[in-house]
Amino acid sequence: MTPLQRLCIIGVGLIGGSLARALRQAQAVDTVVGAGRHTAHLQRAVELGVIDEFSTDLAVAVGGADMVVIAVPLKAIRPVLTAIAGRLAPEAILTDVGSAKQCVVDDVRDIFGYLPGTFIPGHPIAGTECSGVEASFAELFQNRRVILTPLLESQAWAHARVKAMWTLAGAEVIDMGVRHHDDVLAATSHLPHMLAYTLVDSLARLDSRAEIFRYAAGGFRDFTRIASSDPTMWHDVCVANREPLLDKLRQFSHDLEQLTQAIENGDSDSIMQTFQRAKHARDNLYLD
Ligand code: NAP
Fold this sequence. Notes:
By secondary structure, the protein is α/β, with parallel strands linked by helices. It is about 50% helix and about 15% strand. The protein has a six-stranded parallel sheet. A three-stranded mixed sheet has the order 7-8-9, with helices on one face. The mean pLDDT is about 95.
């Protein structure tokens, strides 16, 4: 890929900051412009060598950029689009990293009045429970997947350029339909976050919580690590991906109720079958 001349990252946090770091390390970009709400955060990003320059005026920040990456929480994408509409360079590519895709596509169509051929929605399947530019690191996307959900309107050259960008950041890039993405991610990412948040919240409200958490072992820590994730980000995901997530939550509630009944009834066969199926799936099927 010929290096990006001017990459504008709106939202220089964990994901935006890590992308900037990775592309810098790969010498795939000349200048990185950061944009966000808080000067102090952006100034820190300059000190850390993540970005070269910044503006809190998003319309100014995108000026002259050949690639604009929106990396803010989902609910903030709409106001960001409003601020940059009509301010992008004619050939500028617009992409995002949002954890749900239909809502972003709808926002772009609403705000721009059409779906630009240079808009390529994206979602890196990589992250940590930490937020902000301090948490960003260049290796975040190494050997991880990035899903692009190009649209009928998307132009091939823009798609290829976004794909090349993520490949240089270390990721394997795959394409998926928008709705399929939202459905799959509701199951594999959004549902587990709901379970972790609810489990920790439920136990934290017990009178015996101090003792419970004192004796929490490795399994509890592993399972609940993602409950430390940013509440704003996950609130936005719930709202944005409501229907697919509700679908998965209902299915899971049903299955949990089945297990509850099996335990209540002393139904060892049913309990064993559930655990054996789960162990088989976990051990063999898909996790690399
Ligand atoms: P983050 O670390 O909190 O970074 C978000 C950045 O957006 C911050 O630097 C913040 O800077 C800026 N921001 C927030 N609201 C804004 C607004 N209204 N206008 C302009 N800038 C704004 O969050 P993140 O984890 O990188 O997540 C960013 C996006 O990546 C989200 O859409 C999320 O769904 C997606 N994602 C996250 C993960 C993950 O595991 N974390 C994985 C894949 C995708 P200021 O406070 O200075 O404005």
